[in-house]
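Hey, quick one: can you model this chain's 3D structure?
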Amino acid sequence: MRGAPRPDRAVILVVSVLAAALLAGCLGSLPHDRPTRSVVLAPGAAFDLPLHESRPHWLMRDLPRWCGAAEARWGGDPEDRAVLTTRAVRFRDDNAAARALDKLTPEYLAIVFRDRIAGGPTPVDYPMPLPGDEAKADEYDVRLPPDLAAQLRLTGQFLAVRSGKALILTESIGLPPDELVPAVERMIEVAATAQDGC
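Sure thing. Here's the predicted structure for all 198 residues.
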């Protein structure tokens, strides 16, 4: 007796492409906002972590006066010593960016990034002065696979910094303050050149 026929790879590919197109149509596409992309890529020379990913992002898209957002991930592979995810969001004015920073509470972060958070986040006093117009820091317990979670605890950190119309959110594990702060400063420098237009 023969089993059910196996679907051809071409059929699987076509169905996957159609499903992705349908999903993109339902969710809408994210704008490729060059200024926010340049901000998240700015820390490239600040440390020895390889860039693994860069893309448009949805962060705070539901807020008024949102222009665009981008994300980049540095490190995070088994051979890398740390991981840093940089995110930048641009708004049409300083007030909208300030309201967005206010919304970045531990509760908001816990909901938005719940797939990575096992406990927290909890506000912390950062050990170095943070740049920008306003800033805050939170720490959280990193969600690990159950077999690792029983023997290992990792702490992650969110830094949120507003500079003019830009909001910068970094998420890091294993990156010391003396490396992270210069990376954020570089992002702020680039954000200062991207304050016009939307």
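One thing worth noting: The chain has one domain: 31-192.
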